[in-house]
Structures are given as C-alpha cells and as structure tokens.
Amino acid sequence: MKKLFFCILILSSFFLNAQGLKLTNAVLVAQLDRSEDKFTTEINLAEIFAENGVNVLPSLNLLKQGAPLTTLVSDSIRAILKEKQIDTYLLVNVRGYDRQFRLSTKIASLADELNVAHLFPLFRDEITSITFEFNFFRNDKLCHTELLRLKNVSTKEKLIQKLHKKLPRLIHRWKS
User: Fold this and answer.
1) Mean pLDDT value of segment 113-124
2) How far apart are CA 86 and CA 44, in angstroms?
3) Tens-place pLDDT, residues 13-55
4) Is the separation of the CB atoms in 150 and 129 below 8 Å?
C-alpha cells in the first residue's frame, strides 16, 4: 500500500509540474552527434510544435554549422532570443532503446547540459522502441523533464510517424 501511495505521489508531482509549464515558445535543441539526425529531429519537432500552437526556433537557425551548442548561452544569442520573446530552452535527446528508462537525476544547469555528449543516434536497425528525453530550461535552470517512449518503431519512417502521433498529447499538457 505504501508503494502504491508513493508511486501516485510521484506521478502527481510530475503531472502538476507539467501543468505549470505554460509553454508558448522555445529554442529547440536536439542533442544528437550526427548532423543528419540533428537536422531530422529539429525539423520534425518544430513542425509538430508549430501544428500545436507552440512557437519553436530550431537551434540550427541560430548556430553556424559545426558551432558548439554552448554558443546558445552566449550574450549575443540571448539578445536575439530576448528580442524574439523566447524564454525557454527545450533540449531533446535519445535516452536509449528497448528498455524502460527513468528521468535523469544529474541535470545541473543549461550550460552544463549543453556540454554533455549524447552518443545515441536517432535510429538503429533492429530496435523495437526508443525513448526521448525532453528537458525544459528557464533562467538557466531545469524546470521540467519528461520521457516519451515510442514502441514498434522498426524503421525511421515509423519512428517519425509515431512521434507525430504521440507528441501532440504532451505538447497540450505542456501548454497548460
């Protein structure tokens, strides 16, 4: 009984945390090492967010090719974002494949998280599921984290299709 109560308490705290996010805009940063994966992820996610009423700016539009992600916290980029009234950074990465994953517990600041290397590609042959991690930062501090697991993704096309189907539910929760 205690375990059930504890699980309910944890789930409700995550739900309430997402309820207070009030996401309207964000800089979208796909933390993937391969440039083609980064491009595919940022473009598809930007399309999904735009369809659901959230203004996102892919980091590819702010950074020169090959520039380090830490450039996103420079004063010049922050001035551009302030001018565009963007106050949230959304970092997306692949947490892993074919297992259940828990939320990261060692996320410190935005600059630290941008320095972390994420070695998983967007897609690998012979996987059946993939887990994405979404980290939201405001004022250089983590304000919300959530995992999205997509099952039965045997091809890259199915992965993108499932992402287009499941992500809007989360976006609507993040907007409220």
Assistant:
1) 82
2) 20
3) 444 444 578 999 999 999 988 889 899 999 999 999 999 999 9
4) yes
- State the number of CA atoms in the 13 A half-sphere of 57 facing the CB: 20
The residue whose two tokens read 């998280």 is 113
Confidence class of residue 66 from pLDDT cuts 50, 70 and 90?
confident
Give 69's DSSP letter.
G
For residues 37-53, one letter each, b for 16 or more C-beta atoms within 10 angstroms of the residue's C-beta and e for the rest, the string is bbebbbebbbebbeebe
Read off the tokens for 29: 């940063």
Parallel/antiparallel/unpaired status of strands 25-30 and 89-97: parallel
Q: How far is residue 142's CA from residue 103's CA, in Å, rounded to a whole number?
A: 13
Read off the pLDDT of each residue in 62-76 and give the average, rounded to a whole number. Answer: 85
Strand pairing report for 89-97 and 141-151: unpaired
Scan for tokens 């992402």, then name that residue.
163
